TrEMBL record:
Residues in RNA polymerase sigma factor 70 region 4 type domain copies: 123-173
Native organism: Kibdelosporangium banguiense
Family named by the database record: Belongs to the sigma-70 factor family. ECF subfamily.
Positions of the RNA polymerase sigma-70 region domain: 23-93
Protein name as it appears in the record: RNA polymerase sigma-70 factor (ECF subfamily)
Pfam (any one): Sigma70_r4_2
Keywords: Sigma factor, Transcription, Transcription regulation
Top-level taxon of origin: Bacteria
Length: 179
């Protein structure tokens, strides 16, 4: 690899598609070999290659001002190595999450329902059960989840005024049921 790659990167920074194609033609075989030495999964290598060249296209201007002794292929390898590390981190995170996930049967009641049934007085639980689902959803979002009117509106996909009306209606019905 020579200084020609640095000139290509500078042209890519100006949006030159032909220079990008030439840079890819010259560097992709070398980059693929280096990535395969660190990862045997061809799908991951292909994904990292794609993300690397996308980053090169977007960030070539960042290299254009680099020092004369800065190598374009070194810059390219740094991008690829960071992308590969990101993939490894993501896989590790997913593996940890898979280990942490509890075995909950799909028909198990929601945690909020269990809490309401077990800790709230019988009368309140019965009153909540009598509420229409849309009223109960608003109360759950605002009271149990602690969401604002706006957040509840976004969550439920209804206007903020509707959230306020449903919350007021639910409180009124609960008061009536508990008095």
């Amino acid at each position: 690899m020579t200084d020609d790659e640095a000139a290509l990167v500078r042209k890519v920074a100006k949006g030159d598609r032909a220079a990008f194609a030439e840079l890819y033609r010259r560097t992709s075989p070398w980059l693929a070999v280096r990535l395969r030495r660190r990862c045997s999964d061809d799908q991951i290598v292909a994904e990292v290659m794609q993300e690397t060249y996308l980053a090169v296209w977007r960030a070539a201007g960042g290299f254009a001002g680099a020092s004369v002794d800065g190598s374009a292929v070194g810059w390219l390898w740094t991008i690829a190595a960071h992308r590969l590390v990101d993939v490894f981190r993501q896989q590790a995170r997913q593996a940890r999450q898979a280990e942490i996930k509890p075995d909950v049967p799909p028909d198990a009641p929601a945690a909020e329902e269990v809490v309401l049934a077990g800790t709230v007085g019988h009368e309140l639980g019965a009153a909540l059960d009598q509420l229409a689902p849309e009223l109960r959803d608003v109360l759950q979002a605002m009271v149990l989840d602690g969401l604002t009117v706006r957040e509840t509106s976004v969550l439920l996909g209804v206007p903020e005024g509707t959230v306020k009306t449903r919350a007021r209606r639910a409180r009124t019905l609960l008061r009536e049921a508990l008095s």
